[in-house]
């Protein structure tokens, strides 16, 4: 039983270390999931709810320095500005959806793909 507890403790520690070391990986995965939900939303209400979740996760990612920046504060500022641009696009789309313009909101969301490609090339 004692060996099992030790093994379990080591496993929990290893998993925890991997989660901490991942930087913003989890948030980025969640953002990708939310983009898919935004794109496939059938109603303005569904779109708005998913936009709120996207913004929440994006703000967490914005506050966390990616491991790829190796502690470079100057690059981190640029990363944060890029994340703010992404958040602003989703906020704009959310506003359109809340006014009943779901099609326009989805058109605005389509800009996220080009932003993702741009910022991933710089900060990933």
Automatic annotation (TrEMBL):
Question: What GO cellular-component annotations does this UniProt entry give?
Answer: periplasmic space
List the signal peptide residues.
1-21
Q: Which domain of life is it from?
A: Bacteria
Going by the UniProt record, its keywords in alphabetical order are:
Heme, Iron, Metal-binding, Signal
InterPro entries for this protein: Cyt_b562 (IPR009155), Cyt_c/b562 (IPR010980)
> Which co-factor is required?
heme b
Residues reported in the UniProt entry to bind heme b: 28, 120
Asked if the keyword Hydrolase belongs to this entry, the reply reads no
Q: Which GO terms describe its molecular function?
A: electron transfer activity; heme binding; iron ion binding
According to the record, cofactor stoichiometry and binding are noted as: Binds 1 heme b (iron(II)-protoporphyrin IX) group per molecule.
Q: Enumerate the Gene3D superfamilies for this protein.
A: Cytochrome c/b562 (1.20.120.10)
Stored SUPFAM superfamilies:
Cytochromes
The Gene Ontology biological process annotation of the record reads: electron transport chain
Per the record, the similarity remark reads: Belongs to the cytochrome b562 family.
Question: What name does the UniProt record give this protein?
Answer: Cytochrome B562
């Amino acid at each position: 039983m004692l060996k099992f507890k030790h093994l379990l403790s080591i496993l929990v520690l290893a998993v925890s270390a991997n989660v901490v070391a991942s930087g913003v990986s989890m948030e980025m995965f969640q953002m990708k999931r939310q983009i898919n939900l935004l794109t496939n939303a059938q109603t303005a209400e569904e779109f708005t709810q998913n936009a709120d979740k996207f913004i929440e996760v994006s703000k967490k990612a914005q506050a966390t320095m990616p491991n790829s920046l190796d502690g470079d504060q100057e690059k981190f500022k640029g990363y944060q500005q890029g994340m703010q641009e992404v958040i602003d696009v989703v906020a704009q789309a959310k506003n359109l959806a809340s006014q009943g313009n779901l099609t326009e909101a989805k058109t605005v969301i389509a800009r996220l793909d080009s932003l993702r490609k741009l910022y991933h090339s710089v900060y990933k």
